[in-house]
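Lab notebook: predicted structure, single chain.

Context: the supervisor wants predicted structures on file for every construct in the current expression panel, including those that have not yet been purified. This is the next one on the list. No modifications to the sequence; it matches the entry in the shared construct table.
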Amino acid sequence: MNPDPDSTWVIPGRQASAGADAITVSLELPARFDDAATVHDASLTAAPAAEPSSGAQARVRYVIVGEAGRGGMATVHVARDVELLRNVALKQLSGELSEAEAARLRFLREVQVTAQLDHPYIVPVYGLEVAPGGAPAYAMKLVDGRTLADYLRETIEACSTGARPDEEHSLPARIEHLIKVCEAVDYAHGKGVIHRDLKPANIMLGAHGETYLMDWGICRLFGSDDADPGATIGLSEDTGGSQTEYGTVIGTPRYMSPEQAQGRSDELGPHSDQCALGLMLFEIVTLKAPFEGNTALEVMKNAAAGRRAGFSHAFERRPIAAPLRAIIERATRYDPQQRYASVRELADDLRRYLRGEAVHALPDSPWQRAQRFVGRHRQGMLLSLLGLIAMTALGISALMWRHNQLTHAAQARESLERDFIEHVAREGDKLQLRLVLLQSELESLALAATQLVQYGVPDPTARIYWAEDFDNAATRPADFALQPALGREASMQSAVWSTAGDVERKSVQPLVQRLHHLRGYRNELLDLTRRNLGGGQYADGLLELKLVLEQGLFMRYPGRAVESAEDLRTSRWYEDIRQQPKSNWGTPYLDSEGDDVLLPLSAPMRDPDGKFLGALSMDLALDFVAHNLLRTEDDDALILLDAEAKVLAAEDLLRSDTTAKRVKALTPFGDEALRAAFRDDEVGAVATRAFGRAEIIAFDHIDPLGWILVLVAPDPDGP
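Prediction complete. Output recorded below exactly as produced.
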């Protein structure tokens, strides 16, 4: 079709940084989308075409004969091309969205980007059209087949009966489909485009083995100043996190990267698409959803924290292959910079797995490399071995005996180190999950406090305990007593309130009565922390929750005697969190007595306009974490280090013969060679004598804090 001469269909746009062949898009709509009517409902085929606004008779190019699918933004029709006598897919912006300029801009971007992506695994576009009433539409190839989501459901149905999937639905066949999608996504990334809504429902499998990546409706150019036009795509509460709709949060929760689920749109790039591919690989391998949850909001919360479902097959008892687990873990790491450098590398690793080769996500040990080499050169190795045996039978026998001894020793050593690494990795994952959960709960408490400050209803019957109430036995809370869990006198039911010296208590009394409703959430957070971090005995100064408001109102929990005139707004942590957009783990520090290392966790409180209202903070004694979570058996010791390899917490102690030595807090751990190993690898094991005896140091980095969890164990093979 030809647009009105006074309108411009394609306006030179901004180019991404991928090069001269990067995608170019228009950020302006044509003057009128209703200048011609080239798409007609089947009921209109016998009638003449609608009159265009110019008075000329428009050609009827496509006749709608059925509906292929319907989504949150558009409807896909099956249409007949009356000129070329073929069926096509006709995608039309549906409903009231066709009147919204933002939606039309996004739709126009989708067709322009898709049309420029010339790749065998991306469905070709035939032309931009206009539906009756001026709604935009475009014609594309009609794919005869089913979606990858339908294909996976067929596989699940076969497995649920106890049968093994046929060849078409086997694991290698499923992975081959994903490799094709990876190639399409990598091609788009090379053109400067990210998809942002990769999921099985957007992948079509043709009847003749074709694979097509569909629905580029919320794609985006990266590496440029090209703005994301119009409104965004949102999610529905009842979708279970598997669909996109017109709304406010971009993407599909079940396949979101953490940065996408957290709404950090400006940080999205090729690594975010890669994470979605890794989550689809998880579903293809395990036949279950990567993130659990009954609603989209529950799924999104798990996606934002990177809490993936466990690595187990939904129907089979055999474990998931270690190389596949390593590929999925690398592609979906919480930190985008720790994922594969590109989607191409992810696809190459999957091909290596299918060929039986070592994958880059889990490199082979020397012994495994030798086994693979022998497997690839079996005939040549056999002939050489027969020749050597014929010439020097006795010598070969001696060499083989020696080789077997070395092989068994190497295998035993490798098995020992692997066991240590797996143990410290399990403990690190457990600690990371609990710290992320604790951070999420504090953010929820800060949000509840913000709502009460702004919109809460005062409770005039609330019993408020001020600092001076704790100085008098007659006015203290009824449960005020020595708390063995804390090592001091305190109330576990009531908080202590105070104000800055220049603040009149009367002026903040209604605010205190509104915040009194927070007590249930506050006490629940303390109980959750006790359960989450081991549930054992508290050490002195283990945990104190502080609420500080800009008006000069302060709350501490558990309730205890405090200096009423102390102004917590001058605290270092408060000044730091004032500058932060979200919750933050502060720098560990020694307590006032210099015995315990305390870890501050703080969350800011801001109104909808971003104005800073105050903050919540709590201090966690890391020795308590060590005591409850870093326990091990025999002579092994688990030690928690910061990103610079300084000691944060140690449950026990490094031992030399029969003497136990305590590791001093906030001092460098080990020697420089050991610390260099921590910097070079995310996880590993190192033999060392840095502490006076032969030991094995296994370590694992804990995201997102950047800490290092270390396992110290005697080396049975050391001198």
